[in-house]
Amino acid sequence: MNKERVEEDSFGKMSIPANALYGIQTARTVDNLSFSGKSLAQYPHYIRALAFVKKAAALANGEAGVLTCELKEAIIAACDEIAANHHREAFIVDVLHGGGGIGTNMNMNEVIANLANEKLGQARGTYRPIHPIEHVNASQSTSDVCHTAGRIAILLSYESLKLQIEACIRALKVLAQKFHGIETISRTCLQDAMKVSLGQAFQSGVAMLERRLDGLNRSVEQLHYINLGGTVIGSGVGAPERYRAMVVQKLCETTGMVLRHRDNLFDAAQYIDDLAATSKELNLLASCLLKLAKDLRLRSSGPEAGFGEIVLPAVQAGSSFFPGKVNPVIPETLMQCCFQIFGCDRATQATLEHAELDLNVFDGMACINILDAMDMMKKALGIFTERCLLGITANQERCKELANSLIPMVMQLREKFGYSTVARWIREKKKDELIRVLENGGEKSDTSQTV
To answer: pTM for this structure?
Structure first.
């Protein structure tokens, strides 16, 4: 049995595995443009979104008279299979390939064409009666297909990230309530400050995450505005008017989402600040979570020579050198996730900055970096919540010791004797006298009069 088939385009002939659902355009993209090790198969939300777009386009093309009923139905059936997470192994292009995403679009077009033709009794690679470009890609360009599918993929991915953020907020609320009555010491500039409830540290985390979630929600909401039907640069040239009038509605029906055209489709082709804004919100979330994770490391430092206010769950050995040493590996994992997200955001901002003239050809790269950032954050935040936050306990004895140390005591004296007087006492190192004054209920003893 022949294990290969030969396909031909304007650049010549090429051997393709006989059973492959992809075709020559996909194979050329893999040969010419691969570098990242990230294949489209690793992004199921993106594959699903592309299938939704192709299905909506087939429905609109059917209504517009571009496709016969037979061809339309075969394409739709193929799209439904792909959207149901079948045939992922066929999506082999590098998601960061150059060319404005043409390899991604053609990978999907060829897989759909081969599946649809099989349903009509034809062999893979024949592209009859359904052609990847003439029929599957009818009334579309790579630009509006990938622009739209990328945003849908982010919307799909965001749902699970949002759930993880909400779970983290709930866990922090539990800790804030649990530690509400435990006094410890606050610190400014890493120096001792006044008494504070340990619960306040966690309540501030709640407020931060609720604010960041609100910011993410607002930025992601803007991704419901798409440019499908605008073809390459937003003019809609190459797509029938009837198709353009109904394709977004067909996509809404296909995805179950509320999607709308951007106000200006030329703008949509050139400026991807909607993606940059979402990426920046993820960056802000990562920056805030980085601080939260660092604070947990400090508060749990020790066990004898550190802050020692809280105890983090021990999940594994912390050292191959120190027997019995347990390190804050879960917060450190979240911190490293945050570092990676900073990198994803920088790449995304670059895709906005380096657009030129009438089309931003780096739109797909921005979408992939946002999908990567969301996926990493979802996983790391889940681990952080389940294996760290939910098991944190307070070292109440240590907290009490810190709350009753010198500087919190000084703050009580300041309220009675004033800043300057107490500052002078501190300089003169009369700690024992300060303690006696405080024990006397703030009344000066004879000794204190001479200070």
So the answer is: 0.93
Same domain, 19 and 130: yes
Q: Are 16 and 7 spatial neighbours (Cβ–Cβ below 8 Å)?
A: yes
Q: Structurally, how many domains does the chain consist of?
A: 3
47 and 159 belong to one structural domain: no
Q: Residue 438: pLDDT above 80?
A: no
Q: Say whether both 202 and 334 belong to one domain.
A: yes
Predicted pLDDT at 318: 85
pLDDT band at 450 (very low <50, low <70, confident <90, very high): very low
Q: Which domain holds residue 218?
A: 154-399
- Give catalytic residue positions: 319
